[in-house]
Design a protein that fits this description.
- The mean pLDDT is 79.
- The chain has 3 helices and no strands.
- It has a domain at 28-63.
- The chain is an all-alpha fold.
- The radius of gyration is 15 Å and the shape is elongated.
């Protein structure tokens, strides 16, 4: 159990023995593993009306979906 937590922290770059300049990029993961935005639309119903890959980047829409908060930081960094 402890090893699994340590591995996830290392991959995300948040553990106490991290690799420099390593961070988890949710947009890259979404492009690789959810190219059509199916997962995002399933768990975020406010994005259900956005077609295809646009569901992954709702803050870039001319009119962002109602109820969806703006990003706190740049999710692509």
């Amino acid at each position: 159990m402890a090893n699994n937590y340590g591995n996830w922290q290392w991959v995300a770059g948040t553990g106490n023995d991290t690799r420099p300049n390593r961070s988890f990029n949710p947009l890259r993961q979404a492009r690789r593993f959810d190219p059509d935005g199916v997962y995002v639309r399933r768990y975020l119903p406010e994005l259900a009306d956005l077609p295809g890959a646009r569901a992954r980047t709702p803050w870039r829409e001319e009119r962002p979906p109602r109820g969806y908060p703006p990003p706190v930081g740049d999710p692509g960094r």
